[in-house]
Amino acid sequence: MKKIALATCREFALLTADEKLLTKSLRELGFDAQPLIWDEPGQPLGEVAGVVIRSCWDYHKKSGEFLAWLGRLETTGVKVLNAPAVLRWNLDKIYLRELAERGVKIPPTVWFEKGEKGDLANTLAENDWDKAVLKPTISATAWRTFLVTPENANDLQSEFESLLFDGGAMVQKFVEEVRTTGEWSFIFFDKTYSHAVLKRAEAGDFRVQNNFGGSVETALEPAPALVREAQKTVNSMAEDLTYARVDGVEIAGELCLMEFELIEPVLFLDHHELAAQKFAAAIVSRLDA
User: Is cis: bond before 211, omega within 30 of 0?
Assistant: First the structure.
């Protein structure tokens, strides 16, 4: 049986529930999927047909090491899904600015490069924002993410300066709909829409991730117009995509893109009957090509 490596991190060395569903579906297609801790030395890459990037949920804390690891994978000739070029592009949230230039709607955002000087209070005042979200441009799971208001902007200035010392940062107008109506996640395999879930933040919070008390609803179906907008985002990529997740919020009937996840998104395989089979088929089709 051919072997596939599912790249993960040490915290999830035994794989997540989603990945265990994927493992079962891959086995049904004749592939033995095993975890591969991405930053562990001595990886047996010569034994695998491909590496699928999955729960590498600490990559943002050591992005340089992650990029170096991708480079090493490329030198071995092993198939990586999604492709390293796609992963590099998606690593820094500056990709959102590029998508906006292509016509994708994103929240109003002010971008700051590493080492640049910036003032949070002035940024809010200049843009007439009463709330904004501050975060690094290389980030995941709401890491180092803050809700900024005119009242706390001076208190958070040192955090802002720390972010700019370490890397790029973004200040994004707060989208109130995240709290009121939730954030949709649209899942795609092989650039084809599979399913969606609606994520909601815990009362009093703005972060929809489950480690901050967020919840997931599956009984609701997104409006067809929102699915079409998510599909347009996926189609804007010329590169091959084995998997993708489009996160967005409905504002006045239109989809506002929050994230376009191509590295290690949760794909909510347990929330759709055929999702794991679809993902497995997309993987195998590329390894058999």
Answer: no
> CATH code for 177-262?
3.30.470.20
Contact 186, 222 (CB under 8 A): yes
Distance between CA atoms of residues 105 and 96, nearest Å: 9
Q: Provide the token pair at 289.
A: 């090509």
pLDDT digits (tens, 9 = 90+) for 124-161: 999 999 999 999 999 877 678 899 999 999 999 999 99
In whole angstroms, give the CA distance from residue 288 to residue 85: 21
- The string of pLDDT tens digits covering residues 226-275 is 999 999 999 999 999 999 999 999 999 999 999 999 999 999 999 898 99
Of 254, 119, 282, nearest to 192 by C-alpha is: 282
Give every strand in the sheet of 192-200, ordered side by side.
215-217, 192-200, 183-189, 243-251, 254-261
- Report the predicted TM-score, pTM, of the whole model to 2 decimal places: 0.94
Q: Considering only the C-alpha atoms of the chain, give the largest distance between any 2 of them, rounded to a whole number of Å.
A: 61
Domain extents for the chain?
A: 2-82, 109-173, 177-262
Helix or strand holding residue 82 (H, E) = none
Query: For the domain bounded by 2-82, which CATH number is listed?
Result: 3.40.50.20
Residue in the structure block whose two tokens are 């599956």: 218
**Interatomic CA distance for residues 96 and 93, integer angstroms:** 6
